[in-house]
Amino acid sequence: MPVDLSLYLVTDSTPAILKGRDLCTVVEDALKGGVTVVQYRDKKSDTGDLISTAKKLHQVTQRYGVPLLINDRVDVALAVGVEGVHLGQDDMTFELAKKLLPKDAIIGISTSSIEEARKAVADGADYIGIGTMFATPTKTNTKSVIGTAGTQAILDAISDSSIGTVSIGGINHANVQRVLYQSKSPKKGLDGVAIVSAIVAADDPKASAEEFANLIKSTPVFALDSKVAGANKPETLVAEVPQIVRKLVEAHPLVHNMINFVVSNFVANVALSIGASPIMSPYGDEAKDLCKFNGALLINMGTLTSESIPNYEKAIKAYNTRGNPVVLDPVGAAATEIRRNAVSRLMSGGYFDLIKGNEGEIRQVWGSNAVQQRGVDSGPSTLTDSQKAALARDLARRERNLVLMTGAIDYLSDGERVFAVENGHPYLGQVTGHLRLFLGLPYSDKLLAVLSGLLMYEIAAENAAAKDYVRGPGSFVPAFLDELYAIRTAAAKGDDSWIAGRAKVHEVKI
Ligand SMILES: Cc1ncc(COP(=O)(O)OP(=O)(O)O)c(N)n1
Ligand SMILES: Cc1nc(C(=O)O)sc1CCOP(=O)(O)O
Known about the structure:
Blueprint: E1 7-10, H1 15-18, H2 23-33, E2 37-40, H3 47-63, E3 68-71, H4 74-80, E4 84-87, H5 94-100, E5 106-111, H6 114-123, E6 127-130, H7 147-157, E7 164-168, H8 176-182, E8 192-195, H9 197-200, H10 205-217, H11 234-251, E9 254-258, H12 264-273, E10 277-280, H13 287-290, E11 296-300, H14 308-322, E12 326-329, H15 337-349, E13 354-358, H16 359-366, H17 385-399, E14 402-406, E15 410-413, E16 418-421, H18 426-429, H19 446-465, H20 473-492, E17 505-507
Parallel strand pairs: 1-2, 1-8, 2-3, 3-4, 4-5, 5-6, 6-7, 7-8, 9-10, 9-11, 11-12, 12-13, 13-14
Antiparallel strand pairs: 14-15, 15-16, 16-17
Protein name: Thiamine phosphate synthase/TenI domain-containing protein
Function: Condenses 4-methyl-5-(beta-hydroxyethyl)thiazole monophosphate (THZ-P) and 2-methyl-4-amino-5-hydroxymethyl pyrimidine pyrophosphate (HMP-PP) to form thiamine monophosphate (TMP).
GO molecular function, one term: thiamine-phosphate diphosphorylase activity
């Protein structure tokens, strides 16, 4: 019978993690909470002590019908008669372990590259541990931190095989759903997550394991997995927009803004104009209460300070844990070394449902070092329209989220579909800080939700710019707020004329 790898506990007996408690008690508590496999990992004890502890652990795991595997030591596994072993790249070879262990013994192999994973598949391993997902103090001598993108590439390369897969390294309650969701390749996902400190070092290992089990079971299905019928056709999507705008107006959602002070006032007024409820809070600790209102979080890096990043991280963790939408606006991402580092730190620490930026910013998030922004402007474009569309699509595909690359033409992608939106007005580009409030709405097709927000904004901008009293960005702002309000009022009355014949959306085939 295949092993249930969904919640894989790896033990650690070091004082910093076990904190002087009895290992068997901690493991039994974790089993009560829902752990499905246990690996006894002890790098320090002598062989005699390893065997004696493994025997005690085996008595516990057998009571819960959960397999016990031994890290590195085939001899200890044989002496105790446990269900299997976990072997690293520098341990006994798979072939030899297979010869020595009983036929039905479980053998897992550590992998951190496509080559290692392919070899484990060819050898016939039962599962692979894929890591290191995120840097972790539990094990500092890891080969490479590969994140969700590296894990996805490995899963993709072995997607024809039925080998089991778990991710390991730095996984906790705040990131577990993202790890499972974002690592998924089109044909193969992770079967589970391997955890050390977030369970063994927890004050209450049972409660911690229970929380993991619930999060794993309820890992949400996002945009790529469910769309409205015919959702590749712009006209099908645009036809849905009026009712989505109406729903937004009725929902009166809360938006938590961690935003650049330059546009703070404007963003608050925009939110109010379209019927949302804005709160400006750069204070990360406040997020654990604010996220309970089930609104969306917007991180706008416009006026970054040394205190911003830890505050962003706290807020992202709070919203990710609840699965509430988080939007990243990486303003000026390619302008300075500090901003470049901030982007990579945020990208490795949290899940963003939507990343919105100009070409320079999106290229920086993608990892292109060739870009140098001047201030927050994108700078002259060096990409063709189809390269821009491909960049938005590839980033969304890698991050398994939505990407909106703004410019004269906006490109919106969910990693599969790419739509070009040619509405808007140049004045809108001079008034940064557009909010995408629509992600919080209960629509399974998040791309459609964001497209609705985008069209509402851009059509309001066109209407505002057409007023004869609007002569530049200064007079544009109040007119724009009025036009947003006018659309909101019309939508609330069921009047969809604001969008009739106005949307300039086409699908880009790459
Ligand atoms: C499930 C799982 N995956 C990876 C590892 C790491 O094993 P290894 O490379 O042998 O490193 P050590 O654990 O020996 O430090 C693991 N233990 N479990
Ligand atoms: C044992 C181990 N192996 C890793 C690898 O990358 O192969 S990372 C790791 C430790 C994981 O600990 P925690 O869950 O506390 O971050």
